[in-house]
Automatic annotation (TrEMBL):
Entry keywords, A to Z: Membrane, Transmembrane, Transmembrane helix
TM ranges: 12-32, 131-149, 156-174, 186-208, 215-233, 245-265, 305-325, 362-381
Name assigned to this protein: DUF5692 family protein
Organism: Aquiflexum gelatinilyticum
One Pfam short name: DUF5692
Length: 422
């Protein structure tokens, strides 16, 4: 009797426990299915043009990056929850520094898209893919190459696109398209017009008697040197503030790039049908060293423009390999076109979905700065070695021989003298 009573009470205790276990086994997977995880980069755009980047991991954490054109990007690791179509982001160790996403629930508005509003501002959180951005940057490269070709082809095309068009854009378009963007400053307007002024002046050198005057040739070289000086000063400014050693490495490389400019007295318009402005003493080694330095500067100081900056550099370097000596001419034309493009469509261009995002790796930036300095040191070694051997000490005097200069001007093919002179 006692045994049956014990069994009876065991059944009474065991059945609820069994039911609880069975219920938990059924409901737990359902709960687990409701909570999902994200992986990869999402671009976050705000209605005031502020940009953030979310880098989601399957462990429930997200790296929130606040993009900043005038300063270094700020990053903070936070945690997130995705349940159904609701996404929330919370600080791991409150309070968080980037608090734009605290106390809000983001609602799924489409595949790979979340939206929400806070403090009167609208946010869009959209999954990032590099393919549209790759197509965009490729199209920009092709367009810049065509623009340079047309500027070589006709001086009237230069007057139309580098004088008349920007005057119209300055008065009627840019006051509208730049509002609330990073280029809504007098500095950027001055920058685009300085590039246009270079294009106009170089065209005058090509098609007028200006190419016969030493002062005009000096102005051509000075325009390039001043452009480099501005970037060098910016590198050192950031390096002495909150930047790293890469600023000083690259700033030093920029100084070497300036002091190895030589032979500006050789600048002239050639006798081809294009009337190209050629600088025969500018070697391909100098151009490559400049490109690496300039790209390192962009990655150091305006990293969100890194890939597009590389595209702009390629657009003037490719023509230089086709016809050595025309690099500076192509640089002025392509930079003018790109600056007008930025001023006219800054909101669309600066959208992270239209840009290839490079990995945010400090090691990469340091290695790039070291390559920049190394190439410019090697270029200086070659340059000054030639100066010493050939006793080419005069101001603006070329270090290349007359035969080497004539070979450059006379051909449309690559003259790889930077290899021969190494």
């Amino acid at each position: 009797m006692r045994k049956s009573t014990s069994i009876h009470w065991l059944k009474i205790l065991f059945m609820p426990m069994l039911s609880l276990l069975l219920f938990g086994g059924i409901i737990s997977p359902l709960i687990a299915q409701e909570r999902e995880f994200l992986e990869g980069k999402y671009a976050v755009t705000r209605s005031d043009n502020q940009v953030f980047i979310f880098s989601f991991s399957k462990d429930g954490t997200v790296i929130v990056t606040e993009k900043n054109s005038e300063d270094k990007d700020f990053k903070e690791k936070q945690k997130y929850e995705l349940i159904g179509d609701k996404l929330t982001i919370m600080p791991i160790w409150p309070p968080s520094v980037i608090d734009d996403f605290n106390d809000v629930t983001m609602t799924k508005a489409g595949e790979g898209l979340f939206t929400f509003s806070k403090d009167g501002l609208d946010y869009e959180v959209q999954e990032h893919s590099n393919w549209p951005a790759i197509m965009h940057t490729s199209a920009v490269l092709i367009a810049l190459l065509i623009f340079n070709y047309l500027c070589r082809w006709s001086k009237w095309f230069v007057w139309a696109t580098c004088v008349i068009l920007p005057l119209y854009l300055t008065i009627y378009v840019w006051p509208i398209t730049t509002v609330g963007t990073a280029v809504d400053t007098w500095f950027h307007v001055a920058k685009v017009w300085s590039a246009l002024a270079g294009s106009v002046f170089f065209t005058l050198v090509r098609f007028t008697k200006l190419n016969n005057y030493k002062w005009a040739k000096f102005v051509v070289a000075a325009i390039l040197a001043i452009n480099i000086v501005e970037a060098v000063l910016r590198d050192f400014e950031l390096g002495t503030g909150f930047g790293g050693i890469y600023h000083f490495l690259n700033g030093t490389a920029g100084i070497l790039s300036i002091i190895t400019l030589s032979g500006w007295l050789t600048i002239k318009a050639d006798s081809s049908k294009w009337k190209d402005m050629v600088w025969p003493d500018m070697t391909l080694l100098w151009i490559i060293a400049y490109d690496v330095w300039n790209w390192s500067y962009i990655c150091n100081c305006i990293p969100e423009h890194a890939v597009m900056g590389l595209i702009v550099l390629l657009s003037c370097t490719i023509p230089a390999f086709y016809k050595v000596g025309t690099w500076l001419q192509a640089r002025a034309y392509t930079l003018s076109a790109y600056m007008m493009y930025i001023m006219s469509g800054s909101k669309w261009i600066s959208h992270p979905l239209n840009n290839v995002l490079l990995p945010d790796d400090p090691t990469f930036i340091i290695i790039l700065a070291m390559c920049s300095l190394g190439l410019n040191v090697y270029n200086a070694y070659v340059h000054f070695g030639m100066m010493i051997r050939r006793k080419a000490w005069g101001f603006g005097q070329p270090v290349l021989t007359l035969a080497e200069q004539e070979a450059i001007v006379a051909t449309n093919k690559t003259f790889p003298h930077f290899i021969k002179l190494a």
